């Protein structure tokens, strides 16, 4: 993940005397499923109405909606590099704040777990582990290109008899796997400081070299990190019995394998 600050608190506006005071009971029902499908979320004890904004959210509507009715402070801090840009949007969405007697997060979240997580994050930042190492990433990119070129050259020079084909294939597979990991780091904007360079190189790696759309991958993978191991929210857990799933309706089913969709419990310590 890219370098970030430890809290969103300094980025939000000063508390207004006119802000309505809200309880978790009131916030929780605005989870997008109730009447009017309203969505409220909490960031550093401030309550925001994202019902309309979620559809315009630059990171996609799903990722933000997964936090409707919940405290989104840590995810908010983790996902936004450009705090001044995000701050501009926040002002118009603010509708209230948590009443003084309310805890900063929902009752089903463990305080000690949250504190541990925030402490770990601070330590990781202080140790400089979120700062990119350009030499490392340059070598990664170089070895991918060398392996990819070697696989094609092998077949071009020695032909498609079994041995050169198998060796070329081995180079190609390793290159493809390494590209997957490299584009993952680019998708997290972890390689360059400026997001646009990460996005540009990600398109080269995942779209040009692997043939997949970068926006599709980012959309799914950001949800995975926003709600890791939460059934129905983490797309990495959606192992439905389909061969292809093109959009919500068009799908090609594997009819000869019977896979039962299990009602798995949430693996996430906090959430559903
Ligand atoms: C009211 C709250 C929020 C506001 C105002 C907001 C605003 C924004 C803005 C302006 C961007 C574009 C940033 C850029 O281009 O540099 C963005 C991107 C994004 N946001 Fe939010 N956001 C909010 C809440 C959330 C939450 C709760 C999550 C996660 C659960 C989230 C996840 C993301 C992601 C994944 C991106 C894309 C990041 C990228 O591609 O680099 N946002 N958001
Ligand atoms: Zn990741």
Automatic annotation (TrEMBL):
<feature type="transmembrane region" description="Helical">
    <location>
        <begin position="134"/>
        <end position="154"/>
    </location>
</feature>
<comment type="pathway">
    <text>Lipid metabolism; polyunsaturated fatty acid biosynthesis.</text>
</comment>
<dbReference type="Pfam" id="PF00487">
    <property type="entry name" value="FA_desaturase"/>
</dbReference>
<keyword id="KW-0275">Fatty acid biosynthesis</keyword>
<dbReference type="InterPro" id="IPR005804">
    <property type="entry name" value="FA_desaturase_dom"/>
</dbReference>
<protein>
    <recommendedName>
        <fullName>Cytochrome b5 heme-binding domain-containing protein</fullName>
    </recommendedName>
</protein>
<keyword id="KW-0444">Lipid biosynthesis</keyword>
<dbReference type="Pfam" id="PF00173">
    <property type="entry name" value="Cyt-b5"/>
</dbReference>
<dbReference type="InterPro" id="IPR036400">
    <property type="entry name" value="Cyt_B5-like_heme/steroid_sf"/>
</dbReference>
<dbReference type="GO" id="GO:0016020">
    <property type="term" value="C:membrane"/>
</dbReference>
<keyword id="KW-0443">Lipid metabolism</keyword>
<keyword id="KW-1133">Transmembrane helix</keyword>
<keyword id="KW-0276">Fatty acid metabolism</keyword>
<dbReference type="GO" id="GO:0006636">
    <property type="term" value="P:unsaturated fatty acid biosynthetic process"/>
</dbReference>
<keyword id="KW-0812">Transmembrane</keyword>
<feature type="transmembrane region" description="Helical">
    <location>
        <begin position="160"/>
        <end position="179"/>
    </location>
</feature>
<dbReference type="InterPro" id="IPR001199">
    <property type="entry name" value="Cyt_B5-like_heme/steroid-bd"/>
</dbReference>
<dbReference type="GO" id="GO:0016717">
    <property type="term" value="F:oxidoreductase activity, acting on paired donors, with oxidation of a pair of donors resulting in the reduction of molecular oxygen to two molecules of water"/>
</dbReference>
<dbReference type="InterPro" id="IPR012171">
    <property type="entry name" value="Fatty_acid_desaturase"/>
</dbReference>
<feature type="domain" description="Cytochrome b5 heme-binding">
    <location>
        <begin position="19"/>
        <end position="99"/>
    </location>
</feature>
<keyword id="KW-0472">Membrane</keyword>
């Amino acid at each position: 993940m890219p370098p970030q600050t430890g809290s969103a608190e300094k980025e939000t506006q000063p508390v207004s005397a006119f802000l309505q005071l809200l309880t978790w009971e009131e916030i929780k029902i605005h989870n997008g499923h109730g009447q009017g499908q309203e969505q409220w979320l909490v960031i550093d004890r401030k309550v925001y109405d994202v019902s309309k904004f979620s559809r315009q959210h630059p990171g996609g509507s799903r990722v933000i909606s997964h936090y409707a009715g919940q405290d989104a402070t840590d995810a908010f801090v983790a996902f936004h590099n450009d705090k001044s840009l995000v701050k501009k949007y926040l002002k118009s969405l603010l509708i209230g704040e948590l009443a003084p007697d309310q805890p900063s997060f929902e009752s089903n979240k463990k305080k000690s777990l949250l504190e541990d997580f925030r402490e770990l994050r601070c330590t990781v930042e202080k140790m400089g582990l979120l700062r990119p190492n350009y030499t490392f990433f340059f070598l990664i990119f170089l070895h991918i290109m060398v392996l990819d070129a070697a696989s094609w050259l092998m077949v071009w020079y020695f032909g498609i008899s079994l041995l050169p084909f198998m060796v070329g294939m081995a180079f190609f597979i390793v290159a493809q796997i390494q590209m997957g990991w490299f584009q993952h780091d680019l998708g997290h904007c972890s390689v360059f400081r400026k997001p646009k360079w990460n996005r540009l190189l990600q398109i080269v790696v995942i779209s040009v070299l692997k043939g997949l759309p970068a926006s599709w991958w980012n959309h799914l993978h950001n949800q995975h990190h926003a709600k890791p191991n939460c059934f129905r929210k983490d797309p990495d857990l959606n192992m439905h019995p389909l061969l292809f799933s093109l959009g919500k309706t068009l799908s090609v089913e594997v009819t000869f394998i019977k896979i039962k969709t299990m009602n798995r419990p949430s693996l996430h310590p906090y959430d559903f």
